[in-house]
Amino acid sequence: MTEFERRPPLPPFDRESALLKVRLAEDGWNTRDAEKVSLAYTLNTKWRNRVDFANNRAEAALLLKRKWNKEHEYRLIKELWAFTSNRIAVRYAYEWHDDSGNWYRSYGNENWEFANDGLMAHRFACINDMPIKETDRKFRWPLGRRPDDHPGLSELGL
Question: Count of alpha carbons within 13 Å of 34, Cβ hemisphere only?
Fold first, then answer.
């Protein structure tokens, strides 16, 4: 196994490594780079994302491309909910707008299961979209990585 096939931190997770894994996932998704993000998943990863299913890394990348073609100015915050040796549960929220300029805050929960190399083997997501006014947005940092001093979900009361 080469270093390129490993994605630290590796299981088994403790609180510190689980928190880091969540932040790294958030950072990756905030790039909106489907090919880069897909590299964090096993070649045979299994996903459920709303009503979409992905059965491998290539399908996951296509799902992400479709997602970010629809969800403009996407900004995401993830928060650790629970963890075990090779599983992590997160809650998250993200803000985005559609082609018509309608803004949404999407709330969700994800269950992740990792292979020994730190790549995600399973991802199960449940997501709900809530229309919001542009003036009600809370995620206003420049596109890309959330700044370290930006509040997380709990601090924002979400």
Answer: 14
For residue 2, the model assigns a pLDDT of: 47
Characterize the bridge pairing of strands 87-97 and 72-83. antiparallel
Domain that holds residue 90: 9-136
Name which residue leads in pLDDT, 10 or 5: 10
Predicted structure pTM score: 0.95
Domain for residue 32, yes or no? yes
Contact 54, 47 (CB under 8 A): yes
CATH number at residue 15: 3.10.450.50
CA distance 131 to 157: 17
- Sheet of 103-114: strand order equals 52-54, 41-49, 120-132, 103-114, 87-97, 72-83
Domains of the chain: total: 1
User: Following DSSP, what letter does each residue of 57-91 receive, concatenated?
Assistant: HHHHHHHHHHHHHHSEEEEEEEEEEEE-SSEEEEE
In whole angstroms, what is the distance from residue 60 CA to residue 41 CA? 9
HEC secondary structure over 121-146 = EEEEEEEEEEEECHHHCCCCCCCCCC
SS3 42: strand
Residue 153 lies inside a defined structural domain of this protein:
no
pLDDT of 1: 46
